[in-house]
Amino acid sequence: MRLRDIAFADAAALLAGHGLRLETVADDAPIPGSYWGEPEAGIIAGTVYVRGDTPVHSMLHEACHLIVLPPERRAAVHTDATDSVAEEDATCYLQIVLAGRLPGVGSPRLMADMDTWGYTYRLGSTRAWFEQDADEARQWLAERGLLPA
After folding, report:
1. Among candidate residues 27, 22, 11, 17, the one with its CA nearest the CA of residue 44
2. What global pTM score does this model have?
3. Which is it for the CA torsion 113, 93, 44, 48, positive or negative?
4. Can you tell me the distance from the alpha carbon of 114 to that of 1, in angstroms, rounded to the nearest whole number?
5. Distance (Å, rounded) from C-alpha 130 to C-alpha 109?
6. What is the DSSP string of 41-58?
7. Which of 19, 40, 51, 55 is least surrounded by Cβ atoms within 10 Å, i.e. has the fewest?
8. pLDDT tier at 83 (50, 70, 90 boundaries)?
């Protein structure tokens, strides 16, 4: 699922609720702050950059990298948000949760897209990890008050 497949206003509102900006660039333009290169989302400080062909899972993943960071670290981010396994796991967990709050997406669809893109988990799928092996990520987020009610 690509950004052009959902309402941009819904995605922007979801991110704004976490203090982030969602900014689009032209379809033929490079994406600022993209770690993986186009069409993957990019991050610089509190802004997530996307194009119409950016996968929704990529936008959510990069946004969640910023959400899990304390504000003083968020301000310094450019392209690469973390080298922490705990933060990466929390990011993956939170992107699945937030997909459930994004109209037209939903957690099941996002998990399928994550599998298709190539996320790997020792239980073999994103859903299996989320449902059976993500206790530490969930606890990490809960301890920081980052899980939506």
Report:
1. 22
2. 0.95
3. positive
4. 10
5. 13
6. -EEETTEEEE-TTSBHHH
7. 19
8. confident
